[in-house]
Specification:
heterodimer, A: alpha/beta, Rossmann fold, about 25% strand, globular, B: MetI-like fold, about 85% helix, flat
């Protein structure tokens, strides 16, 4: 177990059931894991493994049935200030009536930050995600990948300690996706922010993470905690050709197959 | 894409198209009144003459202006009240289930039957006439706002939640803009209802106003003057819809842009 001060996000025996009219559907069975400060952790699991449910609980948007979630030692019962979320559905998460700059600015304006401070933060973060010069455009005038960059800029500008991303690149094309993955790695190392990244793409999880948590089939638990011992410098060509990368992705792939069949435990 | 020459020409063409049919009808009307004169259907020239004599003099200040001011206040009050109540009711499930049966009931009551009630409570005043307008014109705004607020994308709501938006940010930066397309639909219906009720509010216990004058002309068989009044009402309706279109384009420019891209 790591030092208490090292742990930023602590999830312990998390359980979430959905109540329907007829029955209780268990979504998350028993989840326990930690994310350390400054870590980049990916969560992969077969579809229907309750990944989004888990993130909503972690983000304080959904109350767990039982169990404990702590961010920096404080129990999460509402969306925490230290966390910023990037949703899969960028088109529905960005506000279409606001410009790109307006979207990035809104959480800051809500905090009552002075205008000139806000303006420089917005400009800097848009620049850092490669979206300088789009400030006055509307999100819907941009491609999907660019919209997700704006959503990332909004999250980064918020100044979180942990960035939580829910399958953020699931609906962009492969080329754009590779660029966005590199952007996440780049922001992670330059900002020193902790990243919790949920994906169903095994290659993506291995490419991005220092650690991959493989989830089981519902009711979900952590099936395996895989340390990704690849060099910190990663690039789309060499990293993905690295025998170690291939070994890790093969291993996780096999784990997911087991998870799908629901035979692991 | 849009060369200045062609866009100018297109505007002219558009104007020609939208005017052609009304002008043709006018011509037909003039011709038929010449061919088959009828005292209840005077020709356009006679009506325009009556229109100028009746409305553009003293009566403009005595009848038309007060009516328009009451109409304006009634519309603005209906919109503000409808949006405020609608946002409140739409945001809270409990308030909604508490009020919904009551709303259904009051919405079903035709406002003209309320005129005597307002007369009793408010007397023969401007407030009474404005109350009549609001009592009918508020509903389309209110009900559309409730629907619009309810239908806001859950991801947008979760985004607002996760960034810990305060109440003011949530209402003015998320809920109202998100419901704006639906609210504007309600506003458009509100305008026509308000115009009708402006006339009705002046038909009872009144001594001035557009509605009063038109019913006076009707009762005294001043047929051309009556038609002139109807013409004026039509023109007010057209003016309202032009104002609406300008405001709508300003408020919902993002919505139209978004829809255009979705269609492409």
């Amino acid at each position: 177990m790591p030092e208490p001060s090292e742990v930023l996000l602590h999830v312990e025996h998390l359980k979430k059931d959905y109540q329907t009219a007829q029955e209780t559907v268990p979504a998350i069975g028993d989840l326990t894991f930690d994310v350390n400060r400054g870590e980049l952790v990916c969560i992969v699991g077969p579809s229907g493994a309750g990944k989004t449910t888990l993130l909503k609980c972690v983000a304080g948007l959904l109350a767990p049935t039982s169990g404990l979630i702590e961010l920096d030692g404080v129990r999460v019962s509402a969306p925490p200030q230290k966390m910023a979320l990037v949703f899969q559905e960028y088109g529905r998460s960005l506000y279409p009536w606001l410009t790109v700059a307006g979207n990035v600015d809104l959480p800051l304006r809500n905090q009552g930050m002075p205008r000139d401070v806000r303006r420089s933060i917005v400009e800097r973060t848009l620049d850092s995600v490669g979206m300088a010069g789009t400030a006055s455009k509307y999100p819907w005038q941009l491609s999907g990948g660019m919209q997700q960059r704006v959503a990332i800029a909004r999250a980064v500008a918020y100044g979180p300690e942990i960035l939580v991303m829910d399958e953020p690149f699931a609906s962009v094309d492969a080329q754009t996706r590779a660029d966005l993955e590199d952007l996440v790695r780049e922001l992670w190392s330059s900002l020193g922010v902790t990243v919790l990244f949920v994906t169903h793409d095994i290659d993506e999880s291995v490419y991005l993470a220092q650690r991959v948590l493989v989830l089981s089939h519902a009711p979900t638990s952590v099936q395996e905690d895989v340390t990704i011992d690849l060099p910190a410098e990663r690039d789309q060509l060499n990293t993905r050709a690295d025998p170690r990368f291939i070994a890790l992705r093969t291993h996780i792939y096999a784990q997911i197959q087991i998870a799908k069949r629901g035979t692991a435990r | 894409m849009s060369r200045p020459v062609s866009s100018g020409r297109r505007a002219l063409e558009g104007a020609a198209y939208s005017l052609a049919f009304p002008l043709a009808l006018l011509g037909l009307w003039a011709a038929s009144t010449l061919l088959a004169p009828n005292r209840f259907f005077p020709g356009p020239a006679r009506i325009v003459e009556a229109f100028i004599n009746t409305w553009l003099g003293e009566s403009f200040v005595i009848d038309v202006l007060p009516s328009l001011i009451r109409l304006g206040i009634g519309i603005v009050a209906s919109i503000l009240l409808g949006i405020a109540l609608g946002a409140l009711i739409g945001s809270f499930r409990h308030v909604r289930s508490l009020l919904e049966p009551l709303l259904e009931f009051f919405r079903a009551v035709p406002p003209p039957v309320l005129v005597p009630v307002f007369l009793l409570v408010l007397g023969i005043t401007n407030e009474m006439k404005i109350a009549v307008i609001v009592s009918g014109a508020v509903w389309p705004v209110l009900l559309n706002t409730i629907e619009g607020v309810r239908a806001i994308d859950p991801v947008m709501r979760e985004t607002a939640q996760s960034y810990k938006f305060g109440r003011a940010t949530r209402v003015f930066a998320v809920v109202l803009p998100g419901a704006a397309p639906q609210i504007m639909t309600g506003v458009r219906q509100c305008l026509s209802v308000a115009l009708i009720l402006m006339v009705i509010s002046e038909m009872f216990a009144s001594s001035a106003g557009l509605g009063y004058r038109i019913s006076y002309f009707q009762r005294n068989f001043l047929i051309a003057e009556m038609w002139g009044g109807i013409l004026l009402l039509g023109l007010i309706g057209v003016a309202l819809s032009v104002i609406y279109r300008v405001v709508e384009r300003a408020v919902l420019h993002w919505y139209h842009g978004l829809k255009e891209i979705e269609r492409a």
